[in-house]
């Protein structure tokens, strides 16, 4: 395992690793930074009724941009596409920092989601192109480790700026980093010369498909925000229909597809790993959303403490990814199965312990949940890449984080 990390860090790829990790960091930390700033934001500009939408619109933008990432990369090139996403993210941060009202803040959050979601998807594409196959698992493990660190750092950064009476500074903090990333990508030769699938120049921008996908995610989000049984069921049903329509149109789009063929068909090919990733998200999102509230109500812990208990899942993911990164390819199936079993154990554990206690077991199962993701994620991607036709590998790399977030949304 140590030898593999030495090879990655000593092979001239340290700059490439730092670059793709920064793209992931901006999205992962910023998706959580607002959580500890919301009381200060609402006290300053109002809009308490829009709080849920500050999260929902960020996710909508992330999913739509993630789906569109492969089109942008294949038609405009990886460097240009990443620069556009970094600038979009920077602009969203600036809008949020200057927001005089919550309505303006929502526009900024949507732009941040678009830029951040696009950067994550493109970072996975960049990792596949820039790193040799034998070093890719370690690169993905490093990205996972950074994601886990951001789960802790995001709320700390937001809380620090809020406590200092300067919540707007947190958005400027990330805007400056996005500007630095844009300059770095512009100057980086490796991004331009990384091994690519065949680039394309034709094809119509898939506006209708992306609109269906975005509206579907918005409808599902509205089902969770506008609480009433009939309304929620109606919104969720509408969302599922719209996303199904997106998938059907995308399947018929030929070489202009955004996702791999039969991306939502679990019966084989590339559909099976993508459906697995989506169901991982579906199975665990309830704890992420409602777990902090349940802990504060039943056990009297602070909101920040409850948030960090849930964030332990990301730490478990990071640790498991780093520990297993050097596993030989012949063990992929065993590690994926072990991850599935571990994830299932955590869900059953939450079901039993969350309402009944003891409280100390809740963070234990949060770590176990993350470990299940960490054991499986890298090797799902490696096995899927092994069976993927060369022309589908960018789509697969982009689809992995995007479909995962879609699972969270649904």
Task: Note down, in words, how this protein is organized.
By secondary structure, this protein is an all-alpha fold. It is built from 16 helices and no strands. The protein has helices spanning 2-9, 14-33, 38-45, 51-76, 78-98, 102-130, 136-163, 168-187, 189-193, 207-225, 229-251, 271-299, 303-324, 332-356, 361-387, 393-409. Residues 193-198 have low confidence and may be disordered.
Helix and strand arrangement:
Blueprint: H1 2-9, H2 14-33, H3 38-45, H4 51-76, H5 78-98, H6 102-130, H7 136-163, H8 168-187, H9 189-193, H10 207-225, H11 229-251, H12 271-299, H13 303-324, H14 332-356, H15 361-387, H16 393-409
Most strands sheet: none
- Gross morphology: globular
Portion of residues in beta strands equals under 5%
Number of helices: 16
Report low-confidence residues grouped into runs of 5 or more: 193-198
**What multimeric state do the chains show?**
single chain
- Tally the beta strands: 0
Terminus-to-terminus distance: 36 Å
The radius of gyration over CA amounts to 20 Å
Output the helix-strand order. Answer: HHHHHHHHHHHHHHHH
Considering DSSP H and I runs of 4 or more, what fraction of the residues is helical?
over 70%
Structural class: mainly alpha
Determine the mean pLDDT: 84
């Amino acid at each position: 395992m140590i030898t593999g990390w030495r090879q990655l860090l000593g092979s001239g790829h340290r700059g490439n690793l730092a670059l793709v990790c920064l793209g992931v960091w901006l999205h992962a930390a910023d998706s959580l930074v607002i959580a500890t700033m919301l009381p200060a934001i609402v006290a300053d500009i109002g809009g308490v009724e829009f709080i849920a939408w500050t999260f929902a619109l960020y996710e909508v933008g992330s999913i739509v941009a993630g789906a569109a990432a492969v089109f942008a990369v294949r038609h405009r090139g990886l460097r240009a596409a990443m620069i556009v996403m970094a600038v979009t993210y920077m602009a969203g941060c600036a809008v949020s920092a200057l927001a005089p009202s919550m309505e303006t803040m929502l526009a900024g959050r949507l732009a941040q989601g678009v830029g951040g979601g696009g950067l994550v998807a493109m970072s996975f594409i960049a990792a596949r192109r820039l790193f040799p196959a034998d070093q890719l698992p370690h690169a993905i493990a490093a990205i996972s480790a950074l994601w886990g660190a951001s789960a802790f750092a995001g709320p700390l950064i937001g809380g620090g700026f809020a406590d200092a009476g300067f919540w707007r500074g947190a958005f400027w903090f990330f805007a400056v980093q996005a500007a630095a990333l844009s300059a770095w990508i512009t100057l980086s030769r490796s991004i331009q010369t990384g091994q690519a699938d065949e680039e394309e120049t034709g094809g119509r921008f898939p506006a209708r498909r992306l609109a269906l996908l975005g509206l579907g995610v918005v409808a599902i989000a509205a089902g969770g925000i506008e609480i009433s049984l009939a309304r929620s069921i109606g919104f969720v049903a509408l969302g599922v229909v719209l996303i199904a329509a997106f998938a059907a149109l995308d399947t018929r789009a030929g070489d202009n597809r955004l996702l791999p063929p039969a991306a939502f068909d679990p019966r084989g090919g590339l559909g099976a790993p993508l459906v697995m990733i989506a169901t991982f998200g579906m199975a665990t999102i309830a704890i992420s959303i409602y777990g902090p509230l349940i802990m504060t109500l039943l056990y009297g812990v602070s909101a920040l403490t409850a948030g960090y208990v849930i964030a332990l899942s990301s730490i478990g993911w990071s640790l498991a990814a780093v520990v297993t990164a050097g596993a030989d390819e012949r063990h992929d199936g065993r590690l994926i199965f072990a991850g599935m079993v571990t994830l299932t154990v955590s869900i059953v554990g939450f079901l039993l312990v969350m309402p009944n206690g003891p409280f100390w077991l809740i963070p234990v199962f949060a770590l176990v949940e993350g470990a299940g993701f960490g054991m499986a994620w890298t090797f799902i991607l490696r096995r899927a890449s092994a069976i993927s036709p060369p022309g589908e590998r960018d789509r697969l790399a982009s689809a992995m984080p995007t479909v995962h977030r879609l699972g969270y949304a649904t």
